Amino acid sequence: MPIDTLAIMAGGVVVCPGCGTRNRVPDAAPTGGPRCGSCKAALPWLVDVGDAGFDSAVDTTRLVLVDLWAPWCGPCRMVAPILEKLSTDLAGTIKVVKVNVDESPMVAGRYNASSIPMLLFMRHGELVDKVVGAQPERILRERIDALLVGRV
């Protein structure tokens, strides 16, 4: 499988970009992150959660990028492959949590998601930054880099 293609399957299963092994990725883990059971490489950590699992999914030591989206939203569909690529490129560094606002009204309300896509950046379950609207990969990568080194 090419490294630029992230294979995320139903049920939280990710194909390792390095060796092709299928691995189950947890929605939540307070420390660390998923590693390939075969080659031990850091895996992309991209999960779909709803209202019930949101708080535990974002309560981690890793920088979390939350994508508040909806299936009918054209800009959301444009951002999705960028987030998948970022989760692969930055495996071991960030976690991407996708929340469908139509199915998760409590999370959408908590963050006043009146415009989507809305991207939230969180640490230890606390909001540290946000971006509203579709952004190109370069802009999102710059924002992530700044957050990782503490400039934001």
Kindly describe this structure:
The protein is α/β, with parallel strands linked by helices. The chain has a domain of 104 residues: 3-Layer(aba) Sandwich (Glutaredoxin), CATH 3.40.30. The chain contains four helices and eight strands. The N terminus is likely disordered.
Describe the structure using short key phrases.
alpha/beta, Glutaredoxin, five-stranded mixed beta sheet, three-stranded antiparallel beta sheet, 8 strands, globular
Q: What's the gist of this structure?
A:
The protein has four helices and eight strands. The chain is of the alpha/beta class and 152 residues long. The radius of gyration is 14 Å and the shape is globular.
